[in-house]
Amino acid sequence: MREVAILGVGQIPVREHWELSIRHLAVEAARNAMHDAGVERIDGLYVSNMTSGELNQQRQLGALVADYLPQHGVEAVKLEAACGSAGSAMRQGIIAIASGEMDAVLVVGVEKMTETPGKTTTAALVTAADADYETPHGITFVSLNALVMQRYMHEYGYQHGDFAPFAINAHANGAKNPNAMFRDPISQRAYERGRMVADPITLFDASPIGDGAAALLLVPAEKAPDAVRVIGSASATDTLSVHDRENPLWLAASEQSVQRAYAQAGIGPVDVDLFELHDAFSIMAALSLEACGFAEPGQGVRLAQEGAILPNGRIPIATMGGLKARGHPVGATGLYQLAEAALQLRGDAGEAQIPDARIAMAQNIGGSGATIVTHILQRP
Amino acid sequence: MREVAILGVGQIPVREHWELSIRHLAVEAARNAMHDAGVERIDGLYVSNMTSGELNQQRQLGALVADYLPQHGVEAVKLEAACGSAGSAMRQGIIAIASGEMDAVLVVGVEKMTETPGKTTTAALVTAADADYETPHGITFVSLNALVMQRYMHEYGYQHGDFAPFAINAHANGAKNPNAMFRDPISQRAYERGRMVADPITLFDASPIGDGAAALLLVPAEKAPDAVRVIGSASATDTLSVHDRENPLWLAASEQSVQRAYAQAGIGPVDVDLFELHDAFSIMAALSLEACGFAEPGQGVRLAQEGAILPNGRIPIATMGGLKARGHPVGATGLYQLAEAALQLRGDAGEAQIPDARIAMAQNIGGSGATIVTHILQRP
Known about the structure:
The structure is a homodimer.
Chain A lengths: L3 E8 L10 H16 L6 E5 L3 H4 L5 H8 L6 E6 L4 H14 L6 E7 L9 H5 L15 H16 L7 H11 L13 H5 L3 E3 L2 E2 L9 E9 L7 E10 L14 H14 L8 E3 L5 H10 L8 H6 L16 H5 L6 H14 L12 E8 L4 E8 L2
Parallel strand pairs in A: 2-3, 2-4, 9-10
Antiparallel strand pairs in A: 1-7, 1-8, 4-7, 5-6, 8-11, 10-11
């Protein structure tokens, strides 16, 4: 199987982009990635998105983005796995290059969520949950995560304030990222006074939606010896309904995909210099750290409290703001994570740079852990 | 690149399946394919679907179908390219096996369209068109095709009745397929008296929506020397808006994908024994025959009038009813086409069997020709 390298990285700021339609968001990030790579013609295009059918009355984003790039005629398709769509698209891009079918693959994640006349984003997002066994009970995505967080606090004896380090770290890091939606650091006091959303989740435990797009240009590693390499790539699934899991506090699909990716890369948690995890909610950051082997079950919050997740800590997370501060344009998020990880390894992360980062990991989660995709990248 | 074989075929009848949720439709077809293949564990799952976000309030079908198969933990994702979703999913399944990443891949197409309280299927389907430049003019998918058909009739001097052979052939063939939605042959007189939908498209020029699911189990060809082989696989795109094309009567993405597939297979149109084309509307059947080299531009209708498309003709089409009579559960259609083509090559097509079929082609179209995927299959 051919190894894959990331030759180009493209992003646009996560914002309320009312002046741009979904095609323009995607095309701008995609062109940035192609320009960064110095590539003018691609062999394949994978677009990721979750909600454009309802929120933008637009499907078939593969052909649409190909049309407007323009890369007329190019093979293109859209992938969806809820908030894990972009990691899944990256995975297909890697497989396409590995197959020998394509030599230059563009992977673009895009979501336009803030201008949706007559539709509620909450209703579009809850399609990631089980429509027969979860949604009919009136659950939303934030309330589902609130139930999990309640259980975690009960099981391991935490208070709400104990989760503050996740939000404080993310916002401090987001302040250094020009593409982040929120660029103001927050204090412990601000965290503790956060407005309640769904007990115990407050405003500072939940990531914001936004409009955004991020893209990567992939090539066979042998053609780009100086580019960031993909040394691990794996995807796994779990039950869609959280109540169907033996242990709702264990992300089995995270463990499964990360263990496979570690094995491919020939590394373990101790070798990872930074981890772009899926902190859609504070509780998901804690559970991800545990499932990926950085902390024992119930100790993810403690790890954060000890400062290990800070830029100078043992395992820096959300180094450019994470979902919490960079923002969470759902179908684009996994590619923002990978773009940020690649920039860190190139030494192009600006003020947010983690010194001497050699190995970075990115993990993208769809639903409450039903689809989890892990990628491990290495500095050239 | 490893060659790919179709080891298992699964379908359910296209119907109004009010008693089954979308997960059950998909799982039934998928299990049929696994049982047919004698395979109990898969390495990857590709699900295709177009409208489940709006019509079933359900996304993340990859994880959902994996959960209920059950194939816990397996890598899974959903692909979408409007009505070309299933052909696109097949394409990814082939690439995944070719890459060496997977040895047993399940590709499942599913759509549940007939039980959609408070939502209109027409509104969900028009998301395949351009939301900025087509949909705002009040266009629907049938009216878009009506404009193309008008232009074709004007350009080449046809009357509406000239298109009758497409509908008559499809319904005659559907009568022999137990999975077809409509199993009654129709007469020329019935065709001519068809109720008007969007001038000149009548009820008998338009395929019916339906609930359905079809699946294929793919393996490396070297592991299944007696199974149907995939000898050509290609996908191409065109502008999303029909008015952006130099010639709205030429399916450029069809030509591009079919030429690539012919080259891979080392064959030409003359070698194809049957062609499962995308007859969502009569006009699309004519345009497909022309773009794939079976007729000169403007001669697709004449080819049908000469009887060449009949089961005993030069190039049998819609051999098990096509979209017109088997039904068009949009995100599943491309896999019904491939399932039917595979059954023909195995000699398992029952009453609809084309004698001594050696090479079959299936072409799946998303939107009005924006995404077109072609596969060529060969008898073992």
